[in-house]
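It is worth pausing here to work through a concrete case rather than discussing structure prediction in the abstract. The textbook approach is simple: state the sequence, then state the predicted structure, then interpret. We follow exactly that order.
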Amino acid sequence: MSIRAVIWDVDDTLFDYTTADRKGMRIHLTAEGLLDAYDSVEQALVRWRQITDVQWARFSAGEVSFEGQRRDRVRVFLGEELTDAEADAWFQRYLNHYETVWTLFPDVLPALDALAASHRHAVLSNSSIHVQDRKLRALGVHDRFEVILCAAELGVSKPEAGAFLAGCDALELAPHQVAYVGDHPEIDGRGSADAGLLSVWIDRAGMSTGGDAPSGPHRIASLAELPALLGADTRFGAPSTFG
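Step two, the predicted structure:
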């Protein structure tokens, strides 16, 4: 059966999150006068990213709320016992700087345009609807998606099958009628494949070391490859592009 819809990840798939996070944090740390505590800007950014990964894992495991993981990121990074209000204010100042450098990847709009008439589109993100709804509006692509789902509201996050199946249910389509496009080979790629969707891993960084995975994700290096991939029935008999 042909693919009728595409569900998209947002951060580092549509939106260049990594670049924006680094640029925004660099601006923020300079404004906050915090760079003197580090040998370099890159060292500070690496520590922020490590703390973010740890706190996000706690949120994914249900140990803390979405807002809580943000506050704890600030507390750990600063090494201070801040009140919720103080942590929220610090994070908001960071967001203000971060949002000034938001941008889509250059291959996003051409891919969405190419698939606009042939496929329905939705979003499934391991974030919150408050964050991603605002982001998609600011980036000018919110109206491209008929459904926007996020882990904070769903109560289940990728790579759990329930997250991907919630997206299929919202579109009223079976998993084998839906493709999922994301940047993480396990959370997005393997997770959506295990849930029964056509899994497409966007590997812009060239992380793949080769090898085929017939039942797993299809690897593409650019979204320019996506229309051709979805134009044929890749689920039955076609060679995998993973690797």
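Step three, interpretation. The chain is about 45% helix and 10% strand. The mean pLDDT is 90.
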